[in-house]
Design goal:
Length: 275
């Protein structure tokens, strides 16, 4: 199922976000990149179908996902799931397993299917040990794992992650993204990730939209936008060294790294570029 936006523009208290036009094919990944105030969160809410009923902002243009007009004043399709940095719970569940079951029960699914989906999502997110805990008792990282389990249990076709793993360790963040990439390849789930940091998302995405103050600064593939991303996003000293090296090169090298292992190999092949 393809996500298509045409001249999508939001009006946030007189400040324009957009216009944005893009086509994201089924199973593809998009990185919404930018710092604080770039407009990532509002754009995530729009792409998840929250406008205008959940986020009442003036908007213009077109936003279509499969047969769904995501700008229509209608309930958000269950095929679309949005995860934000601070999960919000239903308030109707006494433990994590019940919280995951809440959305499934509202679809009136058979009990056996509900139980199977709960077990599968807990396994994917490595949080079986949290099944009997009350959602209000979870730590920040545990909450983000459980929120992802709730979303995956709904078997979404479009998953929007707005800094959804910000409270996890870097290792756990990478593990969940790798798991989602595998799930996406198996189910053709489309994924949109909003981040302020370069890693660990960059090597997983097909397209990048770089935002600053609500405006599109650049749009393209990760390799094509890497020099700009290095100057706009949070990144380690090693990646900053790459930015300095690229700035001094008369022409772009034949290939550019997108992951930490690739970065090590790149510097091994370009020893003169090391500070």
């Amino acid at each position: 199922m393809t996500l298509i936006t045409k001249q999508l523009q939001l009006d946030h208290h007189g400040r324009a976000i957009g216009p944005i036009s893009l086509t994201l094919a089924r199973g593809q990944w998009l990185l919404l990149a930018g710092g604080n105030g770039a407009g990532k969160t509002l754009l995530c809410q729009a792409l998840a179908g929250w406008l205008p009923q959940l986020t009442p902002l003036p908007c213009a243009g077109e936003l279509q996902f499969a047969e769904h007009n995501l700008l229509a004043n209608a309930p958000v399709p269950l095929a679309v799931q949005l995860l934000q940095a601070a999960p919000q719970w239903s308030g109707c569940a006494f433990n994590v397993a019940d919280e995951i079951a809440f959305g499934l029960a509202n679809q009136q699914l058979p009990l056996a299917e509900i139980e199977a989906r709960i077990d599968h999502s807990l396994t994917l997110c490595q949080c079986h040990h949290l099944a009997e805990r009350h959602p209000a008792e979870l730590s920040g990282g545990e909450s983000q794992r459980v929120a992802l389990a709730c979303a995956l249990a709904m078997q979404p076709q479009l998953l929007v992650l707005d800094q959804a793993f910000s409270r996890l360790t870097p290792a756990a963040h990478s593990e969940l993204l790798s798991m989602l990439k595998q799930q996406s390849q198996q189910t053709q789930m489309t994924v949109i990730v909003a981040e302020m940091a370069l890693q660990p998302t960059l090597p997983l995405v097909d397209q990048v939209l770089l935002l600053r103050a609500g405006q599109v600064v650049a749009q393209g593939t990760p390799c094509a936008l890497l020099p700009q991303l290095l100057n706009q996003l949070n990144c380690s000293d090693a990646w900053q060294a790459l930015a300095r090296a690229l700035a001094q090169m008369p022409q772009s090298p034949p290939w550019l790294p997108l992951s930490d292992p690739q970065l090590i190999r790149w510097f091994q092949e370009h020893p003169d570029a090391i500070d």
